[in-house]
Amino acid sequence: MKLLIRTEKNVDVITSPPVVVYRETVTTKTPEPFEGKSPNKHNKLYFVVEPLDPQLAEAIKKGEIPQGRIKKKDSQLWETFTKYGMDAKEARQVRDIYEGNIFMDMTRGEVHIGEIMEMVLDMFEDVMGAGPLAREPCINLKVSLVDTKLHEDAIHRGPSQMYPAVRDGIRGAIRNAKPLLYEPMQVLQFEAPEEYMGEISKLVSNKRGQLLDMQTEGGTVLVKAKLPVAEMFGLSSELRSATGGRGSSSVVDQAFERLPDELQDKIIKQIRDRKGLTDAQ
Q1: CB of 125 closer than 8 Å to CB of 98
Q2: Which 3 state secondary structure label does DSSP give 267?
Q3: Which of 16, 20, 204, 270 could form a disulfide with 209 if both were Cys (CB 3.0 to 4.6 A apart)?
Q4: Euclidean distance between CA atoms 60 and 66, whole angstroms
């Protein structure tokens, strides 16, 4: 529900509840290539999606592997991929690294592939920014184009034909690879007088949080805990209330972790409802 706030300068400010941005990913490999078909039915592209190797995902996250579209001459980058466990031949097929996801061109002998590749990468990046579950950004995906059947005439392979084929093909491959949501997490350090240790523990527990460490120093308790961002709205006021105004917290780290299975359907529905998405979208 939107709130209307009128300031002393008679300026209307419309605000809405804070929005938590989740991430979409997959848990397995697409069992068989998923076909994306152009509206004119003259072009077919086949995609496979699988989880990205954790080593590669971490290297991209740390910036050790740069993001962006890759040219065939980037041989130094191929060596970097092999350093993190990718097969040397496969490393040469990487065409794009976008927001922690990788696109591979695994086709062979496709005459017209070079003419459509930029359009394919456009839609790869588009889907990675809005996945099929709830149009949330994707994370840690390896998307492979494994085969194509393209019309000989370039006039039948324009953006209006290729974009829908690629978009629907990648989304379909993701849906067939057991997709789910990851939620944003933050590691916080709480500090308060030692007598409020129990209250802080209870607060963390009520927020679906996990206690990571607890120490006492000179009458002060230091608690490190990991909490879902979705549960942290109002945390500051609740902490003040629980500690008589004597507690504080600070962010130590943040990451994305798998949303509990029992909350997957509920959160997906909430996001889709908020975005006005229909079952067909």
Answers
A1: yes
A2: helix
A3: 204
A4: 7
Which residue did the predictor score with more confidence, 6 or 214?
Answer: 214
Cβ(36)–Cβ(149) below 8 Å:
no
Beta-strand relationship, 101-105 and 141-149: parallel
The Cα–Cα gap between 243 and 22 comes to: 31
**Residue 138 zone, left/alpha/beta (φ > 0; ψ -120 to 50; rest):** beta
Query: What's the topology of domain 23-177?
Result: Ribosomal Protein S5; domain 2 (3.30.230)
% of the chain residues with pLDDT over 90 = 82
Range(s) of the chain covered by CATH 3.30.70.240: 184-261
Measured between alpha carbons, how far is residue 117 from residues 94, 141, 163, 202 in Å?
Answer: 12, 19, 11, 54
17: alpha, beta or left? (left if phi > 0; alpha if psi -120 to 50): beta
CATH 3.30.230.10 in the chain: give the residue spans: 23-177
Q: What is the CATH number of domain 184-261?
A: 3.30.70.240
Separation between Cα atoms, residue 5 and residue 28, nearest integer Å: 47
Per-residue pLDDT reduced to its tens digit, 9-29: 566 666 666 889 999 999 999
Residue-wise pLDDT tens digits, 154-203? 999 999 999 999 999 999 999 999 999 999 999 999 999 999 999 999 99
